[in-house]
Amino acid sequence: MNFMKYRYSYLLFSLFFIIPGLISLSFFGLKPSIDFTGGSLLEVKMLGSKLTSFNQSDFQNSFGENFQISSAQHTTENQYVLRGKPISNAEKDVLLQRLRDSYGETREVRFETVGPILGKELIQKTFIAGVLVSAVIILYVWRQFHSLKYGVAAVVAMFHDAVILIGVFSMLGKFWSIEVDVLFVTALLTILSFSIHDTIIVFDRIRENVKKHPRAKYQDVVNASILETLGRSINNSMTIIIMLAALSLLGGQTVRWFSIALLIGAVTGTYSSTFTAAPLLVIWDEIVLRLQKRKVRKN
Amino acid sequence: MWKTLRVFFLIIFLTVVATFIALPSELPVSFSFLNKKVEYVMKRPPIDITIFGTRFQHDLALKEGLDIQGGMQVTLKTDMKDISPENRQKALDSAREIIQRRVDLYGVNEPIVQSAQSGEEYRIIVELAGVSDANQALQLIGRTAQLDFRLESASPSATATTSAIAYFDSFIKTGLTGKELKNAAVQFDQQNGQPNVFIQFDDQGSQLFASITQQHVGRVLAIFLDDFPLMLPVIQTPILNGQGTISGNFTLDQAKELSIQLNAGALPVPIEVIQQQTIGASLGQQSVYQSIQAGLIGIVLVILFMIMNYQFKGFLASLALIIYALLTICVYKLFGVTLTLPGIAGLILSVGMAVDSNILIFERMKEEVRAGKSFDISLELGFSRAWNSIKDANLMTIFIALILINPLDLSFLNQSGLVKGFGLTLFIGVILSLFTSMVVSRTFMRLFLRDR
Description:
- The structure holds two protein chains of two kinds.
- By secondary structure, chain A is an alpha+beta fold.
- Chain A has two domains: about 5-35 and about 120-300, Multidrug efflux transporter AcrB transmembrane fold; about 40-115, Alpha-Beta Plaits (2-Layer Sandwich), CATH 3.30.70.
- Chain A is built from nine helices and four strands.
- A four-stranded antiparallel beta sheet of chain A has the order 2-3-1-4, covered by helices on one side.
- By secondary structure, chain B is of the alpha+beta class.
- Chain B is built from twelve helices and 15 strands.
- Chain B has helices spanning about 1-20, 65-70, 90-105, 135-140, 155-160, 165-170, 205-215, 250-265, 285-335, 340-370, 375-405, 415-450, and strands spanning about 25-35, 35-45, 45-50, 55-60, 70-80, 110-120, 120-130, 145-150, 170-175, 180-190, 195-200, 220-225, 230, 245, 270-280.
- A four-stranded antiparallel beta sheet of chain B has the order 6-7-5-15, covered by helices on one side. A four-stranded antiparallel beta sheet of chain B has the order 9-8-12-13, with helices on one face.
- The two termini of chain B are about 20 Å apart.
- The relative contact order of chain B is 0.12.
């Protein structure tokens, strides 16, 4: 099978996913959760209820659509701290009335507008770390594989995965109100390292085969290497996909979108090593050859 | 062969120890045997041993984050009376950042530090996991840590006659404060071995420090912390390089605390505790239980997949995988890694990734067998060839983890507990998966795998 024959189609296929994501990202952006935006904090004392303990869904049920709460924490005796979307003082009074209707006498302990948990500084520094990681990867891979193209292709594949994931969540945010939170940031970081890991394994096989068959055409060597590593790639991704599918389906509401983010990343990470990074190597090689030929002709 | 056996028994020993540590400290066992109901609670005592006079103590409990276990919530009120109304929001934000930095520098994992506004009052809410004592929490948050340098008043009469308070009030502010600090670090006095705090001023501070010390040789330049004189050193010689030490009969912990507070910066506004209370987990027991259950189902499915694909080899790899999971929990406990829900998910994912090395090795072995090599040679070749790719790929992940952990505390990188914690789990995952695939799997296969 000659995979590399269709090298431009793979890149086109990737663009098919990347472009809608980028369009959505530039028009709608991401839907930040209260981790990023801040919201309201309401502490209540449940005085008249027969219930001895409340959980998040008890509160959510009585609030309905009016107040999306992201957490309900028990503090002392019958007091609970609720955190959720920003609401006004008047809205809060409506909510308290609802609690009274559902659970009897309820007293407000405090009501505050709270700032974000994730400051700008964290986002900025995570971004700097991302740039530094990319630089280290390019330099190290360049050194290990004796050619700049490997480093650049690995980092491009990594960004490919990141952009698709962010784009998908931008669309999810627009159409299904899925928010990005602390967990999303963690998922993104995991995906970056997974993507690089997978790409290096494909590159390693290419390096080995180039050494073994120094005279073969580069494109054929890359193709053979991909064929050889495909079994491993698919089997490995299957184990991770099994794990994540179990988490997404059975792991409950809190980790669902985190698992789905990782799942998307695992699929694109596997795809991009074989169908983004490797074609880029071949294309880079072609361009270099063409430039060399032109130089020779000129001389 | 003997060497392999030795390694095998070492692995078995390690697994037993790891199981012992990884299990919860109290494990109720109940089953019926020959119509007799057996109910028993297995208990594991905490480690408390003394070797060569050094006491080792560890309760072997898994540290759980705010989301799983809850912690201590402290609400602080800021005193904004000296700040103009338009600057109050900014002052609140910077106070929040500084408290966050202090808590992070102390190594509390994944704290929540949030600014809050209630009517005209500006507050900061701090939540710390695993802290049960309000005093401990307050110590972490710290006081304002406003450092400044003041000159002794020139008129000598004041010193002899008036009270201490009046004496300290007579010091003249020099304009040199903690703001001009570039760095503070704990060091030890070369003469008496006492811990003290080394300080380095930035360029502007160095110039100011140089001109003050040049002009006032022989006079007292007092170091005040939060308006209280910490030490009253006499300027012996002009200091031109902007370096100095603060000493004051500190214990090591005090010196460390001071250096952390100085590094994190002074709070722009005075703070005061208005409320402290324990706070429950932000996630219900339900969701934690669900994720663990999902993880276990996932692991069983992965094991089935491995056995279906690689038969007996897959079974051996699955054993190695279980050892990997036990070792990971064991390391988490020993090194005090805080476990949060994303941490659990990450752990589950890392099991999936740890399989990768095994799959690489198996696929390599298949190729070597196909190429006509004998079984034993294929086995060894499979490991040594796969090692090349495993090494490069994992080294990359280690780089990424180190940049996220930021062990040198470089200020342009992340110092937040959240990202650091994630980096740490990634790092532990990679190292342990390398160990299980290259040592555990290999030993198992050398011992139990025969050509069929």
